[in-house]
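step=encode ok
step=design start
structure_in=
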């Protein structure tokens, strides 16, 4: 901005300040003072603060100068001071927003859910509806409570069920991730339907009353090369597909 325009703007600011706050006077600085400050790179806001402060103390000369590297920038409490009858006062500056460089990268929010996790294993521990989730170099292992029939339907339409804890060990070598979807097209839990080499072991909560029930349960659990990996609600299907594409060998 040209010096003449700066001086005009500054005069308007000082005049407004003198009307709103009668204790502050434009007489705090002469025109020569204002020209001097502007030539040194002070902003109109800084000069206004200096002149209104000087008008209350009768001192027209600021003690501290703003260094050339700070000229034209808002003065901070450490770079700008004025004298008064009691001693040296620091002129307060409104807090400025932190620069982009000062914000840690980890604090920047992103749209990718996976960015909240340190690794694919950590993501899968959160995403899979189960426990003891372990991702190794060649396998994915987890335990899930799997409910299946444990008998025939009775006269009242009741079908006995059992829900043993089953450990699934899935080989990542050649694993085919067919789809990530609702188990029953439009309803049911989210699942990742995969096909490959899968081992299933019942590890807890299984007490069949006879061999027929045992066989029935095992036949339902051992479904061959296909299985539905249960996914927790709220986990984006696209992110699940992305992680599986990265871990499959």
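sequence_out=
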């Amino acid at each position: 901005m040209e010096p003449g325009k700066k001086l005009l703007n500054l005069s308007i600011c000082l005049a407004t300040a003198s009307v709103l706050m009668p204790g502050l006077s434009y007489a705090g600085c002469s025109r020569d003072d204002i020209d001097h400050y502007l030539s040194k790179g002070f902003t109109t806001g800084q000069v206004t603060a200096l002149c209104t402060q000087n008008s209350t103390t009768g001192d027209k000369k600021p003690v501290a100068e703003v260094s050339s590297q700070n000229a034209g920038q808002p003065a901070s409490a450490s770079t700008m001071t004025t004298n008064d009858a009691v001693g040296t006062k620091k002129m307060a500056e409104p807090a400025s927003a932190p620069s982009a460089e000062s914000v840690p990268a980890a604090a920047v929010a992103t749209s990718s859910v996976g960015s909240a996790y340190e690794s694919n294993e950590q993501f899968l521990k959160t995403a899979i509806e189960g426990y003891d989730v372990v991702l190794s170099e060649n396998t994915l292992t987890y335990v899930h409570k799997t409910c299946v029939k444990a008998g025939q339907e009775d006269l009242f339409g009741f079908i006995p069920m059992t829900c043993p804890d089953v450990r699934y060990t899935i080989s990542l070598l050649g694993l085919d991730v067919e789809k990530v979807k609702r188990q029953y097209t439009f309803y049911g839990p989210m699942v990742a339907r995969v096909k490959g080499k899968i081992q299933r072991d019942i590890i807890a909560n299984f007490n069949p009353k006879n061999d027929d029930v045992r066989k029935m349960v095992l036949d339902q659990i051992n479904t061959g090369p296909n299985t539905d990996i249960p996914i927790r609600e709220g986990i984006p299907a696209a992110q699940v597909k992305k992680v599986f594409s990265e871990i499959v060998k």
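step=design ok
step=annotate ok -> The CA atoms of residues 114 and 242 lie 9 Å apart.
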